[in-house]
Amino acid sequence: MIRFISLLLIVAMTACFREDEPVVLPPPGELQYAQVAMGSTYGRQYYFDLETRDTTGMPFSSWDLCFSSTPQDWQVWINGGNQAYVALTTFDHLSEVKDTTELKWLMDAPSWHRDSTAIGAWMTHNYCYVLDRGPAFAEKVRYYKFQIRALANSDYLLTYAALHDSAAASVTIERLTDRHYLYFSFDHNGSVPFIEPAVDDWDLLFTRYRHVFTGQQPPLPYVVTGVLINPSVAVAVDSILGFDLIDYAQAQQLTYVSQRNIIGYAWKYYDFSAQAFIVRSNLTYVIRDTKGIYWKLRFIDFYNENGEKGYPAFAFQRL
Amino acid sequence: MKELIFWCCRWLLASWAAGSGCLLAQSTTLIIRSSVTDSVIGGAQVIWESPDGVQQTLYAQPDGTVHMPLRQPTLVRIYKHGFRLYTDSIMPGAILTVHLQPLGRHLEDVVVTGQHRSMPAAHSVLHVRIVERAELDLRQAQDLTDAITYELWARMSRDEVLGSYASINAISGQNLKILINGIPVIGRENGNIDLGQISLQDVERIEIIEGPMSVLYGTDALGGVINLIMREPPDSSGGAECSFYTETIGTYNLAVNGGGNFRGHTFRVSAGRYFFSGFPLQPPQRYQLWKPKLQYFGSLTFRPNVSGWNLRWRSDVLREEIRNKGLPVLTPYQAYAFDDYYYVWRGVQALHASRQLGQGLLWNGQAGLSTYSREKVAYRKDLVKLELHERAEDYQYNRFSELNVRSDVSGVALTKSLSWQVGLDFTGQQAAGNRLQGRQQQYEGALFSTVEYQFTPALSLRPGLRLSYNTYGIPLTPAVHVRYAFSDRMQIRGGLARGFRAPSLKERYLYFFDSNHAIYGNPKLKAEQSVSANVFWLFEYELGSMHMDTELSASYNDIRDQISLALVQPLTQQYTYVNVGQYRVRTVSFRAEGHWKSLHADVGVLIQAVAHALGDSLSTDGFLIAPEFRAQLVWGDAARLLRSALMFRRTAPMPAFSMDAAGVLYEQIAPSYNLMDISFHRMLWDNRVEVYCGINNLWNVQHVPHLSSAAAIHASQQDMAVAVGRHAYLGIRFRAARL
Prior knowledge:
The complex is a heterodimer.
Chain A: H1 2-14, E1 32-35, E2 44-48, E3 55-59, E4 65-68, E5 76-78, E6 85-88, E7 129-132, H2 139-142, E8 143-150, E9 156-162, E10 169-173, E11 181-184, E12 204-213, E13 220-229, E14 234-238, H3 248-251, E15 268-271, E16 276-279, E17 284-288, E18 294-303, E19 309-318
Antiparallel strand pairs in A: 1-19, 2-3, 2-12, 4-5, 4-11, 6-7, 7-8, 8-9, 9-10, 12-13, 14-17, 15-16, 17-18, 18-19
Chain B: H1 2-19, E1 26-34, E2 45-49, E3 55-59, E4 65-70, E5 74-79, E6 86-90, E7 95-100, E8 110-111, E9 119-120, E10 128-132, H2 133-139, H3 144-148, E11 154-159, E12 163-168, E13 176-180, E14 183-184, E15 188-189, E16 192-193, E17 203-210, H4 214-217, E18 224-230, E19 238-247, E20 251-262, E21 265-276, E22 293-303, E23 309-324, E24 329-330, E25 335-358, E26 361-382, E27 387-390, E28 396-413, E29 418-433, E30 440-454, E31 459-470, E32 476-485, E33 490-501, H5 505-509, E34 511-513, E35 518-520, E36 528-543, E37 546-569, E38 574-596, E39 599-614, E40 618-619, E41 624-637, E42 642-651, E43 654-659, E44 665-670, E45 673-684, E46 689-696, E47 703-705, E48 707-708, E49 719-721, E50 727-735
Parallel strand pairs in B: 1-7, 13-18, 35-38
Antiparallel strand pairs in B: 1-4, 2-3, 2-5, 5-6, 8-9, 10-17, 11-12, 13-14, 15-16, 17-18, 19-20, 19-50, 20-21, 21-22, 22-23, 23-25, 24-25, 25-26, 26-27, 26-28, 28-29, 29-30, 30-31, 31-32, 32-33, 33-36, 34-35, 36-37, 37-38, 38-39, 39-40, 39-41, 41-42, 42-45, 43-44, 44-48, 45-46, 46-50, 47-49
């Protein structure tokens, strides 16, 4: 009896808050390799997630307008990979827009900076826009006129018609809270060609986009094949330390930016003497993903085993 | 004298017979009576074992007598539903009168709450409910939450961090006054007192009065009063108890009690340690919905033996620690979590004194100093190095103290048809905290009086009045209560009263400003006021061999000038407290309690209609009518000293207003849910050990969906946590000697 009572006393007196077990941090990840198949014509674009290696692909030309889905943002971009341009008219009814004369064609900044879109602050006026979808489209479907309105719930209302059509159509572009961008195509009587992966599910977009070579006179817009980053991802570029030496401590010393074309196309160049794309393997990109995890990445090839271009291959490792 | 000599001879003969082995059976007579009314109790079960080990059972005659053929001193147990179990060693041939002590809701219980002086509940003009110690034991109630969860008049709500709080007849916890031996319990968080901080280890019984009692108890006694009557020091030489309680959800409670008597000076000490490891238990996950908690508490009661005086000094302390561990953030480079530790200190020093001043004149006085402090210490815990780093910007503290001094004189006059009480009541409150505008105080002084006049033995009327001096505009509070007894078995009680709740210091002087909040107190707040009426019809009757107690009651309660947060500056999102609310409650309840042989059934239905409005803009759509149901079945086997109970409760939906993330008020309705417990209680080893076990929350109800009204477009459909999951428990109490 005494023992039993003693046992109860000990149990009751010693029961206490459970202490945490120390967490053992994982060592740096394995060196991994991946290759995406954009194709020799660069026709496909791919979203790539460094953590899961998930890829999501679709034709890069499948969209015309890209709407910001981020709350409080309202920017709209055009598909530079299609060499699209947009112009602001002086008409506030679509039926008044009948041709492209005297239109001033504009394009977005390659950086996708919010303040540098060709469409600009559409909510401050009622004028119509005309989109030149690009030279790859037949004349009848190349030009579209449109207006954008903001709905009370902050969704977008897009009213559009082909340039020479009088009947306009409207479509509501609904914001998705877990995405950065919403895409729209004038094909198929207006459609959503695809839904990009959720914000946390992709880091890099291998695609065609328009770069402007400002060193040229006049500045030369040119479609390039490269990488745009998730706007929630930050990237630092290193050309000194080298891929093998960069670790977590050094990565924290670097300067990171979230400019979408920070990786861009310049990790390779065309060697005219060799008639081939050469990868700049001294460039290391340190990527801080949406979860705060650091990765180092470098490109190792642009060709597949058959010698076809458009197959960027890269090595990456979690720090 | 002849009779005395005769019984002495008989006793000597019996002693000789037992000692010499000459075991002649002698008729032993017991007369069983109530300890309160002294009336005889028929039908009581008397059990003992014959020398050859065979169990014998007899039932008392209607006149309360039972004749037992005993051959030697024998341990006899007497069991009757509604009374405490009586155990004693009886000599052969004795004629003894045994007094059973009533328990439960019996009208013979003596009550003190709201009375001029202690009296049987049956004679009280006020309708006082009682939860006896035996019921608390059967439910294995560790704190006040457990004690009233299955009471029809009460409804429990639980917050994972702030604890649990009760409402009475749909009047919320901030409008309830909780007393310990008449001293107010302070320390409200979000308007409520955490009932989990009130241990029942030292409680003798709980007395509850529904409806406003502001005439006697001042502020907060608007919806009712819960008065915990603590155990007194033993009159005998002393004794000690030790109890252990554990639940499968990680509860380990230990408590010890002891008391003694030194030259007429009596004392009682108690101490305990309650630990709850949090729920759910899902290691290695560190976040738990129900937070782990550790409590230490102790009390000391001392009654000096001073001639002509009845003095009692009592000191209580409690320290509670709650750890709210956050979800871990794990990255390849760091692992951490944000934890909050809450520390609560409670202390009460109370002095009670009474003295007979003359014929029928009694003076009562009490002084209580209560202190309460609560600290929230926020940490960032490094889960790699297991280091705590304090986040000073999130540190919070509140400190409250209250001095309550009360003195009254009561007396009887006019050939005892008139009794009266007149008294003074002073309450001073002080508060400080880093979310208050400096150190703040408020005071109330009051003169109160009640007069009870018995027109006939059946009819009593009791008017009362409180005249206050305070800063929140309640000068006069009247009340009147009446009792009419149609017969010994049927009576009706009713009351009409006003009540009030003074704005708390926090509501008057809060200053909380950060990037998400801008909430200011309002020093100009008025007190909440209520008008209440209630009526109770009580009927007791025999139905064959079944004894029935029934109660039909109805109440009306309107609270106006209810204090609520309101957005007063939309541009800066500034909130403050204003008197805008109106809360109306109507209830009807029926309760029946039956005793039949070894069974005791208690069922009740409460239908409440609640309407709530906040200003002109937000209100419920008329009255929301909701039924509550409660049932309790107790079965006792006196032969095995075993009692078992099955308790069931269905709670009603309840409307409430909440504020969403955008600061918009919306209506929510907490839906109904069911609770059921089963418990067993057995006494062992000559009543020195009591064992309790059972299963709580048989249906494993843990969450119920919070239903928002259609207009609440901002609200998310969140689940409301109502209880920890199904779990078993075991309690053991060791008794060195009866206290």
